[in-house]
Protein backbone atom coordinates (compact mmCIF):
# COMPACT_ATOMS: atom_id res chain seq x y z
CA UNK A 1 0.00 0.00 0.00
CA UNK A 2 2.82 2.40 0.95
CA UNK A 3 4.70 1.43 -2.19
CA UNK A 4 1.56 2.08 -4.26
CA UNK A 5 1.22 5.51 -2.66
CA UNK A 6 4.82 6.48 -3.52
CA UNK A 7 4.38 5.00 -7.02
CA UNK A 8 1.18 6.95 -7.65
CA UNK A 9 2.80 10.23 -6.55
CA UNK A 10 5.88 9.55 -8.68
CA UNK A 11 3.65 8.80 -11.66
CA UNK A 12 1.74 12.08 -11.21
CA UNK A 13 5.01 13.98 -10.81
CA UNK A 14 6.77 12.45 -13.85
CA UNK A 15 3.76 12.71 -16.15
CA UNK A 16 3.79 16.48 -15.58
CA UNK A 17 7.51 16.72 -16.42
CA UNK A 18 7.97 19.04 -19.41
CA UNK A 19 11.18 17.39 -20.61
CA UNK A 20 9.36 14.09 -20.92
CA UNK A 21 6.38 15.59 -22.71
CA UNK A 22 8.71 17.34 -25.20
CA UNK A 23 10.66 14.14 -25.86
CA UNK A 24 7.40 12.25 -26.34
CA UNK A 25 6.02 14.80 -28.82
CA UNK A 26 9.32 14.74 -30.72
CA UNK A 27 9.31 10.92 -30.83
CA UNK A 28 5.73 10.73 -32.11
CA UNK A 29 6.55 13.43 -34.70
CA UNK A 30 9.59 11.48 -35.84
CA UNK A 31 7.56 8.28 -36.20
CA UNK A 32 5.04 10.14 -38.37
CA UNK A 33 7.89 11.74 -40.35
CA UNK A 34 8.98 8.24 -41.34
CA UNK A 35 5.97 8.23 -43.69
CA UNK A 36 7.83 10.80 -45.79
CA UNK A 37 11.30 9.24 -45.44
CA UNK A 38 9.92 5.82 -46.33
CA UNK A 39 8.81 7.22 -49.65
CA UNK A 40 12.45 7.52 -50.76
CA UNK A 41 13.17 3.86 -50.19
CA UNK A 42 12.02 2.42 -53.53
CA UNK A 43 9.11 0.34 -52.35
CA UNK A 44 10.25 -0.38 -48.81
CA UNK A 45 8.18 2.23 -46.98
CA UNK A 46 6.72 -0.25 -44.53
CA UNK A 47 10.16 -1.53 -43.48
CA UNK A 48 11.48 2.01 -43.04
CA UNK A 49 8.43 3.04 -41.00
CA UNK A 50 8.76 0.06 -38.69
CA UNK A 51 12.54 0.48 -38.29
CA UNK A 52 12.10 4.19 -37.64
CA UNK A 53 9.27 3.65 -35.19
CA UNK A 54 10.97 0.94 -33.13
CA UNK A 55 14.30 2.81 -33.08
CA UNK A 56 12.59 6.07 -32.06
CA UNK A 57 10.78 4.22 -29.29
CA UNK A 58 14.02 2.77 -28.00
CA UNK A 59 16.17 5.94 -28.31
CA UNK A 60 13.61 8.34 -26.83
CA UNK A 61 12.67 5.84 -24.14
CA UNK A 62 16.35 5.71 -23.24
CA UNK A 63 16.54 9.53 -23.11
CA UNK A 64 13.52 9.69 -20.83
CA UNK A 65 14.98 6.91 -18.68
CA UNK A 66 18.28 8.76 -18.25
CA UNK A 67 16.88 12.27 -17.75
CA UNK A 68 14.01 11.39 -15.45
CA UNK A 69 15.53 8.29 -13.82
CA UNK A 70 18.50 10.25 -12.52
CA UNK A 71 16.43 13.23 -11.34
CA UNK A 72 14.05 10.91 -9.50
CA UNK A 73 16.07 10.69 -6.29
CA UNK A 74 18.35 13.68 -6.76
CA UNK A 75 15.34 16.02 -6.89
CA UNK A 76 14.00 14.69 -3.60
CA UNK A 77 17.38 15.27 -1.97
CA UNK A 78 17.92 18.73 -3.49
CA UNK A 79 14.42 19.97 -2.63
CA UNK A 80 14.69 18.27 0.77
CA UNK A 81 11.29 16.62 0.28
CA UNK A 82 12.98 13.34 1.18
CA UNK A 83 12.85 14.41 4.85
CA UNK A 84 9.06 14.53 4.69
CA UNK A 85 8.85 11.07 3.11
CA UNK A 86 11.57 9.46 5.25
CA UNK A 87 9.98 10.73 8.46
CA UNK A 88 6.79 8.79 7.69
CA UNK A 89 6.43 5.14 8.78
CA UNK A 90 7.92 3.79 5.55
CA UNK A 91 11.02 1.73 4.84
CA UNK A 92 13.63 3.25 2.61
CA UNK A 93 13.51 0.30 0.22
CA UNK A 94 9.80 0.95 -0.18
CA UNK A 95 10.61 4.49 -1.34
CA UNK A 96 13.07 3.13 -3.94
CA UNK A 97 10.66 0.48 -5.23
CA UNK A 98 7.71 2.89 -5.23
CA UNK A 99 9.66 5.50 -7.16
CA UNK A 100 10.80 2.87 -9.64
CA UNK A 101 7.30 1.51 -10.21
CA UNK A 102 5.92 5.05 -10.64
CA UNK A 103 8.43 5.86 -13.34
CA UNK A 104 7.90 2.41 -14.87
CA UNK A 105 4.18 3.16 -15.29
CA UNK A 106 4.97 6.57 -16.86
CA UNK A 107 7.32 4.86 -19.30
CA UNK A 108 4.67 2.26 -20.09
CA UNK A 109 2.26 5.07 -21.00
CA UNK A 110 5.00 6.58 -23.23
CA UNK A 111 5.72 3.29 -24.95
CA UNK A 112 1.99 2.71 -25.55
CA UNK A 113 1.60 6.19 -27.07
CA UNK A 114 4.63 5.72 -29.33
CA UNK A 115 3.37 2.26 -30.34
CA UNK A 116 0.00 3.74 -31.26
CA UNK A 117 1.75 6.35 -33.42
CA UNK A 118 3.76 3.58 -35.10
CA UNK A 119 0.68 1.43 -35.69
CA UNK A 120 -1.15 4.49 -37.00
CA UNK A 121 1.62 5.09 -39.55
CA UNK A 122 1.60 1.37 -40.38
CA UNK A 123 -2.18 1.45 -40.86
CA UNK A 124 -1.83 4.34 -43.32
CA UNK A 125 0.88 2.54 -45.30
CA UNK A 126 -0.04 -1.14 -45.07
CA UNK A 127 -3.75 -0.91 -44.37
CA UNK A 128 -3.33 -3.04 -41.24
CA UNK A 129 -1.61 -2.90 -37.87
CA UNK A 130 1.27 -5.33 -37.62
CA UNK A 131 0.85 -6.99 -34.22
CA UNK A 132 4.01 -8.99 -34.89
CA UNK A 133 5.88 -5.96 -33.54
CA UNK A 134 4.60 -6.62 -30.01
CA UNK A 135 7.51 -8.89 -28.88
CA UNK A 136 10.06 -6.24 -29.95
CA UNK A 137 8.08 -3.46 -28.22
CA UNK A 138 7.82 -5.53 -25.04
CA UNK A 139 11.59 -6.09 -24.95
CA UNK A 140 12.24 -2.42 -25.75
CA UNK A 141 10.19 -1.60 -22.65
CA UNK A 142 12.19 -4.09 -20.57
CA UNK A 143 15.41 -2.51 -21.88
CA UNK A 144 14.20 0.97 -20.91
CA UNK A 145 13.25 -0.30 -17.44
CA UNK A 146 16.70 -1.83 -17.10
CA UNK A 147 18.32 1.48 -18.02
CA UNK A 148 16.09 3.24 -15.43
CA UNK A 149 17.32 0.67 -12.90
CA UNK A 150 20.92 1.59 -13.66
CA UNK A 151 20.13 5.33 -13.60
CA UNK A 152 18.50 4.96 -10.20
CA UNK A 153 21.36 2.83 -8.90
CA UNK A 154 24.11 5.22 -10.04
CA UNK A 155 22.21 8.28 -8.83
CA UNK A 156 21.97 6.73 -5.37
CA UNK A 157 25.69 7.32 -4.79
CA UNK A 158 27.05 9.53 -7.63
CA UNK A 159 26.47 13.09 -8.86
CA UNK A 160 23.79 13.50 -11.59
CA UNK A 161 26.24 14.16 -14.46
CA UNK A 162 28.41 11.21 -13.54
CA UNK A 163 25.32 9.03 -13.15
CA UNK A 164 24.15 10.02 -16.65
CA UNK A 165 27.57 9.21 -18.11
CA UNK A 166 27.74 5.86 -16.33
CA UNK A 167 24.21 4.94 -17.47
CA UNK A 168 25.08 5.87 -21.03
CA UNK A 169 28.26 3.77 -20.76
CA UNK A 170 26.17 0.79 -19.61
CA UNK A 171 23.90 1.26 -22.63
CA UNK A 172 26.84 1.39 -25.07
CA UNK A 173 28.74 -1.52 -23.53
CA UNK A 174 25.48 -3.47 -23.25
CA UNK A 175 24.97 -3.24 -26.98
CA UNK A 176 28.60 -4.08 -27.73
CA UNK A 177 28.73 -7.13 -25.45
CA UNK A 178 28.57 -9.57 -28.36
CA UNK A 179 31.67 -7.98 -29.86
CA UNK A 180 33.46 -8.09 -26.51
CA UNK A 181 32.84 -11.81 -26.32
CA UNK A 182 33.92 -12.34 -29.93
CA UNK A 183 37.08 -10.32 -29.30
CA UNK A 184 37.97 -12.35 -26.21
CA UNK A 185 37.41 -15.59 -28.13
CA UNK A 186 39.50 -14.38 -31.07
CA UNK A 187 42.41 -13.08 -28.99
CA UNK A 188 42.47 -15.11 -25.76
CA UNK A 189 46.15 -14.28 -25.08
CA UNK A 190 45.74 -10.51 -24.83
CA UNK A 191 46.71 -9.22 -21.40
CA UNK A 192 43.57 -7.18 -20.78
CA UNK A 193 41.04 -9.77 -21.88
CA UNK A 194 40.09 -10.44 -18.24
CA UNK A 195 38.76 -6.87 -18.12
CA UNK A 196 36.64 -7.43 -21.22
CA UNK A 197 35.40 -10.74 -19.84
CA UNK A 198 34.53 -9.02 -16.59
CA UNK A 199 32.63 -6.28 -18.46
CA UNK A 200 30.79 -8.91 -20.49
CA UNK A 201 29.50 -10.67 -17.37
CA UNK A 202 28.79 -7.56 -15.27
CA UNK A 203 27.04 -5.34 -17.81
CA UNK A 204 23.79 -6.76 -19.23
CA UNK A 205 23.87 -7.94 -22.82
CA UNK A 206 21.25 -5.57 -24.25
CA UNK A 207 21.36 -7.32 -27.62
CA UNK A 208 19.41 -10.14 -25.95
CA UNK A 209 16.56 -7.64 -25.64
CA UNK A 210 16.83 -6.46 -29.23
CA UNK A 211 14.30 -8.04 -31.57
CA UNK A 212 13.75 -4.97 -33.74
CA UNK A 213 15.33 -6.37 -36.90
CA UNK A 214 13.89 -9.85 -36.36
CA UNK A 215 10.27 -8.68 -36.18
CA UNK A 216 10.54 -6.17 -39.03
CA UNK A 217 12.14 -8.65 -41.43
CA UNK A 218 10.26 -11.62 -40.00
CA UNK A 219 13.45 -13.57 -39.39
CA UNK A 220 13.11 -16.81 -37.49
CA UNK A 221 13.89 -16.10 -33.83
CA UNK A 222 15.60 -18.51 -31.47
CA UNK A 223 13.01 -20.37 -29.38
CA UNK A 224 12.01 -18.60 -26.14
CA UNK A 225 13.82 -15.41 -27.26
CA UNK A 226 11.00 -13.28 -25.84
CA UNK A 227 10.29 -15.17 -22.61
CA UNK A 228 13.97 -15.65 -21.72
CA UNK A 229 14.80 -12.07 -22.73
CA UNK A 230 11.98 -10.86 -20.46
CA UNK A 231 13.19 -13.03 -17.57
CA UNK A 232 16.79 -11.91 -18.11
CA UNK A 233 15.76 -8.26 -17.95
CA UNK A 234 13.51 -8.70 -14.91
CA UNK A 235 16.27 -10.58 -13.03
CA UNK A 236 18.75 -7.76 -13.70
CA UNK A 237 16.20 -5.12 -12.65
CA UNK A 238 15.47 -6.93 -9.38
CA UNK A 239 19.20 -7.18 -8.64
CA UNK A 240 19.65 -3.46 -9.32
CA UNK A 241 16.71 -2.56 -7.08
CA UNK A 242 18.21 -4.65 -4.27
CA UNK A 243 21.55 -2.86 -4.65
CA UNK A 244 19.92 0.59 -4.89
CA UNK A 245 17.82 -0.10 -1.80
CA UNK A 246 20.94 -1.26 0.07
CA UNK A 247 22.86 1.91 -0.84
CA UNK A 248 19.85 4.10 -0.10
CA UNK A 249 19.34 2.47 3.30
CA UNK A 250 22.86 3.48 4.35
CA UNK A 251 22.63 6.97 2.88
CA UNK A 252 22.98 9.93 5.23
CA UNK A 253 20.53 12.67 4.20
CA UNK A 254 22.32 15.48 6.06
CA UNK B 1 -3.95 58.44 -32.22
CA UNK B 2 -0.70 57.33 -30.59
CA UNK B 3 -1.89 53.72 -30.46
CA UNK B 4 -2.88 53.85 -34.15
CA UNK B 5 0.56 55.20 -35.05
CA UNK B 6 2.21 52.40 -33.09
CA UNK B 7 0.15 49.80 -34.94
CA UNK B 8 0.92 51.40 -38.31
CA UNK B 9 4.66 51.40 -37.61
CA UNK B 10 4.42 47.76 -36.54
CA UNK B 11 2.64 46.77 -39.78
CA UNK B 12 5.17 48.74 -41.90
CA UNK B 13 8.11 47.05 -40.13
CA UNK B 14 6.47 43.64 -40.68
CA UNK B 15 5.96 44.38 -44.39
CA UNK B 16 9.60 45.55 -44.76
CA UNK B 17 10.88 42.39 -43.08
CA UNK B 18 8.63 40.23 -45.26
CA UNK B 19 9.93 41.96 -48.39
CA UNK B 20 13.53 41.57 -47.21
CA UNK B 21 13.05 37.84 -46.58
CA UNK B 22 11.43 37.33 -49.99
CA UNK B 23 14.15 39.32 -51.77
CA UNK B 24 17.09 37.54 -50.08
CA UNK B 25 15.50 34.15 -50.72
CA UNK B 26 15.05 35.03 -54.40
CA UNK B 27 18.72 36.04 -54.69
CA UNK B 28 19.85 32.87 -52.91
CA UNK B 29 17.62 30.67 -55.13
CA UNK B 30 19.08 32.31 -58.22
CA UNK B 31 22.63 31.52 -57.23
CA UNK B 32 21.78 27.93 -56.29
CA UNK B 33 23.24 25.20 -58.48
CA UNK B 34 22.87 21.45 -58.19
CA UNK B 35 26.20 19.72 -58.51
CA UNK B 36 26.49 16.35 -60.13
CA UNK B 37 29.96 15.15 -59.24
CA UNK B 38 31.34 12.37 -61.43
CA UNK B 39 32.63 10.14 -58.71
CA UNK B 40 31.68 10.27 -55.07
CA UNK B 41 33.90 8.10 -52.93
CA UNK B 42 32.23 6.21 -50.12
CA UNK B 43 33.53 7.90 -46.99
CA UNK B 44 32.24 5.25 -44.64
CA UNK B 45 33.91 2.57 -42.53
CA UNK B 46 33.68 -1.09 -43.51
CA UNK B 47 30.42 -2.95 -43.00
CA UNK B 48 31.67 -4.82 -39.91
CA UNK B 49 32.60 -1.52 -38.25
CA UNK B 50 29.25 0.03 -39.18
CA UNK B 51 27.51 -2.99 -37.71
CA UNK B 52 29.52 -2.49 -34.52
CA UNK B 53 28.82 1.24 -34.45
CA UNK B 54 25.07 0.89 -35.02
CA UNK B 55 24.67 -0.51 -31.46
CA UNK B 56 21.40 -2.36 -31.82
CA UNK B 57 19.94 0.02 -34.40
CA UNK B 58 21.11 -1.98 -37.41
CA UNK B 59 17.75 -1.81 -39.16
CA UNK B 60 17.70 1.97 -39.26
CA UNK B 61 21.38 2.22 -40.31
CA UNK B 62 20.64 -0.20 -43.16
CA UNK B 63 17.64 1.91 -44.18
CA UNK B 64 19.82 5.04 -44.22
CA UNK B 65 22.44 3.32 -46.43
CA UNK B 66 19.67 2.02 -48.69
CA UNK B 67 18.10 5.47 -49.11
CA UNK B 68 21.57 6.87 -49.95
CA UNK B 69 21.95 4.19 -52.64
CA UNK B 70 18.51 4.88 -54.08
CA UNK B 71 19.06 8.65 -54.19
CA UNK B 72 22.49 8.21 -55.78
CA UNK B 73 21.11 5.81 -58.37
CA UNK B 74 18.19 8.15 -59.05
CA UNK B 75 20.47 11.08 -59.74
CA UNK B 76 22.88 9.13 -61.90
CA UNK B 77 20.78 6.74 -63.86
CA UNK B 78 17.32 8.17 -64.04
CA UNK B 79 17.55 11.93 -64.01
CA UNK B 80 19.42 12.25 -67.28
CA UNK B 81 16.47 10.71 -69.10
CA UNK B 82 14.02 12.80 -67.15
CA UNK B 83 12.64 15.90 -68.92
CA UNK B 84 13.01 17.83 -65.68
CA UNK B 85 16.73 17.01 -65.41
CA UNK B 86 17.81 20.10 -67.32
CA UNK B 87 15.18 22.10 -65.50
CA UNK B 88 16.74 21.08 -62.19
CA UNK B 89 20.21 21.97 -63.45
CA UNK B 90 19.07 25.35 -64.67
CA UNK B 91 16.77 26.11 -61.74
CA UNK B 92 16.97 29.79 -60.88
CA UNK B 93 17.64 30.81 -64.46
CA UNK B 94 14.06 31.46 -65.73
CA UNK B 95 14.85 31.60 -69.45
CA UNK B 96 16.65 28.28 -69.53
CA UNK B 97 14.15 26.71 -67.13
CA UNK B 98 11.26 27.39 -69.50
CA UNK B 99 13.32 26.40 -72.53
CA UNK B 100 14.10 23.07 -70.88
CA UNK B 101 10.45 22.42 -70.17
CA UNK B 102 9.32 23.40 -73.68
CA UNK B 103 11.94 21.31 -75.49
CA UNK B 104 11.13 17.58 -75.37
CA UNK B 105 14.11 15.41 -74.40
CA UNK B 106 15.89 13.55 -77.17
CA UNK B 107 14.90 9.92 -77.21
CA UNK B 108 17.82 7.73 -76.29
CA UNK B 109 18.21 4.30 -77.77
CA UNK B 110 19.16 1.52 -75.43
CA UNK B 111 22.79 0.65 -76.23
CA UNK B 112 23.24 -2.86 -77.54
CA UNK B 113 26.57 -4.20 -76.38
CA UNK B 114 28.21 -7.22 -77.94
CA UNK B 115 28.12 -10.27 -75.67
CA UNK B 116 30.95 -11.26 -73.35
CA UNK B 117 33.71 -9.30 -71.62
CA UNK B 118 33.85 -6.55 -74.23
CA UNK B 119 30.24 -5.67 -73.46
CA UNK B 120 31.07 -5.45 -69.75
CA UNK B 121 33.98 -3.12 -70.43
CA UNK B 122 31.79 -0.82 -72.52
CA UNK B 123 29.03 -0.88 -69.95
CA UNK B 124 31.38 -0.05 -67.11
CA UNK B 125 32.71 2.95 -69.01
CA UNK B 126 29.25 4.42 -69.28
CA UNK B 127 28.16 3.42 -65.78
CA UNK B 128 28.13 7.03 -64.53
CA UNK B 129 30.11 6.07 -61.43
CA UNK B 130 27.53 3.51 -60.32
CA UNK B 131 30.06 0.71 -59.98
CA UNK B 132 32.46 2.62 -57.75
CA UNK B 133 29.77 3.86 -55.40
CA UNK B 134 26.81 1.52 -55.37
CA UNK B 135 28.63 -1.79 -54.93
CA UNK B 136 30.75 -0.67 -51.95
CA UNK B 137 27.62 0.85 -50.42
CA UNK B 138 25.57 -2.31 -50.99
CA UNK B 139 28.36 -4.39 -49.51
CA UNK B 140 28.27 -2.29 -46.33
CA UNK B 141 24.48 -2.32 -46.25
CA UNK B 142 24.22 -6.09 -46.58
CA UNK B 143 26.85 -6.60 -43.89
CA UNK B 144 24.89 -4.40 -41.49
CA UNK B 145 21.56 -6.08 -42.34
CA UNK B 146 22.14 -9.41 -44.13
CA UNK B 147 18.41 -10.22 -44.28
CA UNK B 148 17.34 -7.13 -46.22
CA UNK B 149 16.79 -8.98 -49.52
CA UNK B 150 16.01 -6.28 -52.07
CA UNK B 151 19.43 -4.53 -52.04
CA UNK B 152 21.06 -7.81 -53.15
CA UNK B 153 18.68 -7.99 -56.11
CA UNK B 154 19.11 -4.28 -56.82
CA UNK B 155 22.90 -4.72 -57.07
CA UNK B 156 22.84 -8.20 -58.55
CA UNK B 157 20.30 -7.49 -61.29
CA UNK B 158 19.35 -3.83 -61.80
CA UNK B 159 22.81 -2.31 -61.42
CA UNK B 160 24.32 -5.21 -63.34
CA UNK B 161 22.05 -4.49 -66.30
CA UNK B 162 23.22 -0.88 -66.35
CA UNK B 163 26.89 -1.54 -65.73
CA UNK B 164 27.72 -5.09 -66.78
CA UNK B 165 29.72 -5.52 -63.58
CA UNK B 166 29.12 -9.27 -63.38
CA UNK B 167 31.79 -10.17 -60.80
CA UNK B 168 30.52 -7.67 -58.24
CA UNK B 169 26.92 -8.67 -58.91
CA UNK B 170 27.81 -12.35 -58.52
CA UNK B 171 29.64 -11.69 -55.22
CA UNK B 172 26.70 -9.74 -53.85
CA UNK B 173 24.14 -12.39 -54.78
CA UNK B 174 26.33 -15.19 -53.39
CA UNK B 175 26.67 -13.25 -50.14
CA UNK B 176 22.88 -12.93 -50.02
CA UNK B 177 22.41 -16.63 -50.73
CA UNK B 178 24.67 -17.57 -47.81
CA UNK B 179 22.77 -15.26 -45.46
CA UNK B 180 19.30 -16.25 -46.76
CA UNK B 181 19.52 -19.86 -47.96
CA UNK B 182 15.74 -20.33 -48.00
CA UNK B 183 15.04 -17.58 -50.58
CA UNK B 184 14.45 -18.61 -54.21
CA UNK B 185 15.54 -15.24 -55.63
CA UNK B 186 19.25 -15.84 -55.09
CA UNK B 187 19.73 -19.13 -56.97
CA UNK B 188 17.40 -17.91 -59.71
CA UNK B 189 19.34 -14.69 -60.36
CA UNK B 190 22.70 -16.41 -59.92
CA UNK B 191 21.57 -18.87 -62.58
CA UNK B 192 20.53 -16.02 -64.84
CA UNK B 193 23.96 -14.36 -64.53
CA UNK B 194 25.71 -17.68 -65.23
CA UNK B 195 23.61 -18.11 -68.37
CA UNK B 196 23.63 -14.56 -69.72
CA UNK B 197 27.04 -13.22 -68.70
CA UNK B 198 29.23 -16.30 -68.21
CA UNK B 199 27.42 -18.50 -70.75
CA UNK B 200 27.77 -21.47 -68.40
CA UNK B 201 24.57 -23.42 -68.98
CA UNK B 202 25.48 -26.33 -66.70
CA UNK B 203 25.92 -24.00 -63.74
CA UNK B 204 22.68 -22.22 -64.71
CA UNK B 205 20.83 -25.52 -64.59
CA UNK B 206 22.26 -26.29 -61.15
CA UNK B 207 21.19 -22.91 -59.76
CA UNK B 208 17.72 -23.22 -61.30
CA UNK B 209 17.31 -26.66 -59.75
CA UNK B 210 18.23 -25.16 -56.39
CA UNK B 211 15.70 -22.35 -56.91
CA UNK B 212 12.86 -24.78 -57.61
CA UNK B 213 13.44 -26.49 -54.27
CA UNK B 214 12.70 -23.27 -52.35
CA UNK B 215 9.32 -22.19 -51.03
CA UNK B 216 7.29 -19.71 -53.16
CA UNK B 217 9.47 -20.24 -56.25
CA UNK B 218 7.69 -18.73 -59.31
CA UNK B 219 5.78 -21.15 -61.49
CA UNK B 220 7.78 -20.30 -64.65
CA UNK B 221 11.01 -21.74 -63.23
CA UNK B 222 10.15 -25.46 -63.80
CA UNK B 223 9.40 -24.64 -67.47
CA UNK B 224 12.80 -22.97 -67.79
CA UNK B 225 14.51 -25.99 -66.26
CA UNK B 226 12.75 -28.42 -68.62
CA UNK B 227 13.75 -26.54 -71.76
CA UNK B 228 17.27 -25.80 -70.52
CA UNK B 229 17.88 -29.43 -69.56
CA UNK B 230 16.67 -30.55 -72.99
CA UNK B 231 18.87 -27.97 -74.79
CA UNK B 232 22.07 -28.92 -73.01
CA UNK B 233 21.24 -32.65 -72.91
CA UNK B 234 21.35 -32.95 -69.11
CA UNK B 235 17.88 -34.28 -68.33
CA UNK B 236 19.35 -37.27 -66.53
CA UNK B 237 21.38 -34.99 -64.28
CA UNK B 238 18.28 -32.92 -63.50
CA UNK B 239 16.33 -36.06 -62.63
CA UNK B 240 19.00 -37.33 -60.27
CA UNK B 241 19.37 -33.91 -58.67
CA UNK B 242 15.62 -33.55 -58.10
CA UNK B 243 15.30 -37.09 -56.74
CA UNK B 244 18.03 -36.33 -54.22
CA UNK B 245 16.30 -33.07 -53.33
CA UNK B 246 12.99 -34.86 -52.85
CA UNK B 247 14.53 -37.17 -50.26
CA UNK B 248 15.73 -34.26 -48.12
CA UNK B 249 12.63 -32.06 -48.42
CA UNK B 250 9.76 -32.19 -45.94
CA UNK B 251 7.72 -29.15 -46.93
CA UNK B 252 4.62 -30.53 -48.76
CA UNK B 253 4.36 -27.51 -51.10
CA UNK B 254 7.99 -27.82 -52.21
CA UNK B 255 7.68 -31.61 -52.52
CA UNK B 256 4.69 -31.18 -54.82
CA UNK B 257 6.64 -28.64 -56.90
CA UNK B 258 9.62 -31.02 -57.25
CA UNK B 259 7.40 -34.02 -58.03
CA UNK B 260 5.61 -32.14 -60.80
CA UNK B 261 8.92 -31.05 -62.31
CA UNK B 262 10.28 -34.59 -62.10
CA UNK B 263 7.21 -35.86 -63.96
CA UNK B 264 7.66 -33.23 -66.69
CA UNK B 265 11.35 -34.06 -67.11
CA UNK B 266 10.59 -37.80 -67.22
CA UNK B 267 7.97 -37.14 -69.92
CA UNK B 268 10.58 -35.22 -71.94
CA UNK B 269 13.03 -38.09 -71.59
CA UNK B 270 10.62 -40.84 -72.64
Structural commentary:
The complex is a heterodimer of chains A (254) and B (270). With 254 residues, chain A is an all-alpha fold. Chain A is 78% helix and 0% strand. Chain A has helices spanning 2-15, 18-37, 45-78, 81-86, 92-126, 134-155, 160-186, 193-202, 212-216, 225-250. The longest helix of chain A is centred in the middle third of the chain and has 35 residues, at 92-126. Chain A is globular, with a radius of gyration of 20 Å. The mean pLDDT of chain A is 86. Chain B contains 14 helices and no strands. In chain B, helix 9 (166-179) runs antiparallel to helix 10 (185-196), helix 10 (185-196) packs antiparallel against helix 11 (201-212) and helix 13 runs antiparallel to helix 14 (252-269). The longest helix of chain B has 29 residues, at 2-30. The N and C termini of chain B lie far apart (108 Å). Mean pLDDT of chain B is 78; it is low at 108-115. The interface between A and B is medium-sized, with 27 and 18 residues.
List the SSEs and their pairings.
The complex is a heterodimer of chains A (254) and B (270).
Chain A: H1 2-15, H2 18-37, H3 45-78, H4 81-86, H5 92-126, H6 134-155, H7 160-186, H8 193-202, H9 212-216, H10 225-250
Chain B: H1 2-30, H2 47-53, H3 58-78, H4 84-89, H5 94-102, H6 117-125, H7 130-144, H8 149-163, H9 166-179, H10 185-196, H11 201-212, H12 220-232, H13 235-248, H14 252-269
Helix pairs in contact in B: 2-7, 3-7, 7-8, 7-9, 8-9, 8-10, 9-10, 10-11, 11-12, 12-14, 13-14
